[in-house]
Each structure stands twice: as C-alpha cells, then as structure tokens.
Amino acid sequence: MDEYARDPCPWRIVDDCGGAFSMGCIGGGIFHGIKGMRNAPKGTYRRLAGSFLTLRQRAPITGGNFAVWGGLFSAIDCSLVYIRKKEDPWNSITSGALTGAILSVRHGAGAMLGSAVVGGVLLAVIEGLGIMFTRYSAEQFNAGYGNSSQG
Questions:
Q1: φ, ψ for residue 82 (rounded to 5)?
Q2: DSSP annotation of 2
C-alpha cells in the first residue's frame, strides 16, 4: 500500500539515503553522547564536555554508515523492482541480504555469508511484522464496521 505512494526509484534512493543518514545521526548522537559522558573524567562540566565532543566527532560517522547502508539497500531494491516487474516483500528481503553481503565483502566469503543471512532474516522479520500488523488492523477496521450495517 505505502510502496505505491512512494517516489519513483531514482528519487527513492536519494530519499532513503538521506533518511538513513538522519536516523544514524540522531541514534548515533544519543549513543555516542552517553558513551562520551561515561568515559569522561569526573565532574559535571567535564562529563558534559566529553559527551559533546564524542557526539560531535562520532555521530556524523554513524550517520554516514547508515546512509551507505540505506542507499545501497534502496538501489538494490529499485533494481529488483525493475528486473522482476513487481514490488513485493521478497525484494526487500533479497535487498537486505545482498546489502549485508556487499558491505562485508572485504572480510571474506564467510563474513559475506553471515552478513547476508543476518540481513535477509532481519528484513524478513520486519516485512513479516509489517504484513501481520496490516492484516490485524484491517481485521479490526472491518470488525468495527461489519456489524453496523445489520441494524
């Protein structure tokens, strides 16, 4: 449903890349801010300064890593939509597996296989939960209106 309302593929890649960068910066900012505070010397000022310094140095790197993952995932997903001529959960699952494998190619075949399995399983769980949630909400919507027409 939501997939059909999205931008066409060349713009979708840019959009997903930017969204992933933002998500990585925000999550990385929180994570690295806490990490910097914990690793700083004692004292409120020093802890805040350490937190801000670590956040400023590391959050954009985390955002960039997320952007690479999101852009590659979206490019593979768009390629699969073009090749298969349909948009379904298998595209996302395959894209997750291929993205994991491609990003770990420098670590060898074993790491590629492991990352592909993790990426595919993770995307399969996400797609499965999305389908389950959509069906559950559709049943709730139909159950609420199905009885009102028999009055």
A1: -65, -45
A2: T
Q: Which two tokens stand for residue 49?
A: 């300064």
- C-alpha distances in Å from residue 79, one per residue of 73, 82, 98, 109: 10, 5, 12, 23
In 91-116, which positions are buried (b, 16+ CB within 10 angstroms) versus exposed (e)? bbbbbbbbbbbbbbeeeeeeebeebb
- Tokens encoding 26: 């925000």
- Structure-token pair, residue 148: 């009102």
Residue 48 CB neighbour total at 10 angstroms: 14
Over residues 132-146, the pLDDT tens digits come to 988 888 887 776 665
Alpha helical stretches, state H, 41-151:
44-84, 89-103, 109-146
